[in-house]
Design a protein that fits this description.
- The chain has 435 residues and is α+β, with helices and mostly antiparallel strands.
- The chain folds into 3 domains: 83 residues, no CATH class; 98 residues, 3-Layer(aba) Sandwich (Endonuclease, Chain A), CATH 3.40.960.10; 130 residues, Aminopeptidase, CATH 3.40.630.30.
- The strands form 5 sheets. Strands 9-10-11-12-14-19-15 form a 7-stranded mixed β-sheet, with helices on both faces.
Length: 435
């Protein structure tokens, strides 16, 4: 009852039957309740929970019907019947026919698949149903219908070789809280964060929501990856490459000893980062690349002075390989070249905890310095894209927003202009010092 989808379905059902969203809004409803109480108890405002419990005990043997396994089973069967009737009604209006009866309907969920037939072209297909009927459509008659975020991600996980055990909507790890996907063989889980459903102003998910899930998983030795909706939509190949790397399933392996270290131009650096790094291009001072057969396959960039720690001489800003490529010893070769060439005294770097554990820094000789708090990304008013919060600091807003009040905070001004925000999990901070 706390989910928006359930609330909307309930409202729609009551509206269809009674013309209002809640039965308490029906004309004369309160008068009828009061009249019943007056007749039974002599008091139109009578409420006796103890008497209610006594009645339930006499009728069901428990002080609350939901404590009875028989009642719970009956309620479950009633829900299945109602849901099955909704499916039949949906099919009638969408030129479909369910090829299963109520007896063989086991409830919604991704583990249960059902056959349907298109009444226009007679095509038979099989699909699962979960909360909505968007997955029930004829691919031949409606080829332009796009798969959902979750379904397309599930298809990707299912395509990995070797195949992995995939649990959807798991509630065993976080004591009832849901994980979208869980790979028990890899101690790895995924959360797919829709920009609206995971926003602060629109849906109430505040600063520590995603971090709490991450920490909860870590307490069970499970690594949780958070993927924002626009990342999967705009850079699916890159996200898939990152996941394959985490799972050690990349297709191409290159040995760093067969590569040459070179300085990279700003143009080539920006192009490489735009394709191969989730945070895309940066403003770096030093740009070192590994070239294999004259092709740039790995990149590490540094900037003089850190953006967030002025006590450190350098910041390792970006590191990435070409998509779907593992370079054995690549990061170490680039880092050692930087040390020998520029003789730094101290270096800091940060790993995005939504995706990365920071284990690479251990191999490079960095020391873990702690985790930063969660940060936020602004969401455009249409909830389609995220934007770097540093581009919307308060002193910049007057020239960027159509509505600006200097007496309001940055966040209040952004909300006034229709923007929302989504929180991440913070960063791991790593420091290298000369020995």
């Amino acid at each position: 009852m706390k989910t928006e989808q359930t609330m909307q379905r309930l409202k729609a059902s009551v509206m269809e039957k009674h013309g209002v969203t809640w039965v308490s809004k029906m004309d004369g409803w309160y008068d009828k309740v009061k009249a019943t109480k007056l007749k039974l108890y002599g008091d139109e405002n009578y409420l006796n929970p103890e008497q209610q419990k006594k009645t339930w005990i006499e009728k069901y043997g428990v002080d609350n019907p939901t404590k009875s396994s028989d009642i719970r089973e009956r309620m479950n069967e009633n829900r299945k019947t109602a849901h099955y009737n909704y499916i039949k009604e949906y099919c009638i209006h969408n030129n479909l026919e369910p090829l299963f009866d109520r007896e063989h309907y086991y409830g919604y969920g991704f583990d249960n698949k059902y056959k349907f037939q298109c009444t226009k072209c007679q095509y038979v297909f099989e699909t699962s149903i979960y909360n909505s009927f968007g997955a029930i459509f004829c691919e031949k008659c409606d080829p332009n219908k796009k798969p959902t975020f979750e379904n397309s991600f599930f298809e990707f996980l299912s395509s990995l070789t070797p195949p992995l055990l995939i649990k959807r909507h798991d509630r065993t790890i976080l004591y009832g809280k849901e994980l979208d996907f869980y790979l028990p063989e890899k101690n790895l889980a995924f959360e797919l964060n829709g920009l609206y459903w995971h926003s602060e102003f629109g849906h109430g998910l505040t600063r520590r929501y995603h971090l709490n899930k991450t920490n909860g998983c870590l307490s069970h030795n499970v690594r949780l990856i958070h993927i924002f909706e626009n990342e999967w939509r705009d850079k699916p190949d890159l996200v898939k490459s990152v996941i394959r790397t985490i799972l050690k399933l990349q297709g191409t392996t290159i040995y760093a000893r067969k590569c040459e270290v070179r300085e990279v131009s700003i143009k080539d650096k920006d192009a490489f980062l735009d394709i191969n790094h989730l945070q895309q291009k940066d403003k770096s001072t030093i740009k070192l690349g590994l070239y294999y057969d004259r092709k740039l396959v790995s990149l590490m960039t540094f900037r003089r002075t850190s953006r967030f720690d002025k006590n450190v001489e350098w910041e390792l800003s970006r590191f990435c390989n070409s998509s779907n490529t593992i370079i054995i010893g690549g990061a170490s070769k680039l880092f050692q070249h930087f040390l020998k060439t520029y003789t730094p005294k101290s270096i800091v770097s940060y790993n995005d905890r939504r995706y990365f554990s920071g284990e690479l820094y251990n191999t490079l000789g960095f020391i873990f310095n702690g985790n930063t708090g969660p940060s936020y990304h602004y969401i455009t008013p249409d909830y389609k894209n995220t934007m770097n919060r540093l581009n919307f600091q308060k002193h910049l807003l007057e020239k960027k927003l159509s509505i600006f009040d200097p007496n309001l905070s940055e966040w209040e001004n952004m909300k006034a202009n229709g923007y929302d925000r989504i929180w991440d999990c913070g960063n791991g901070k790593w420091v290298w010092n000369i020995h």
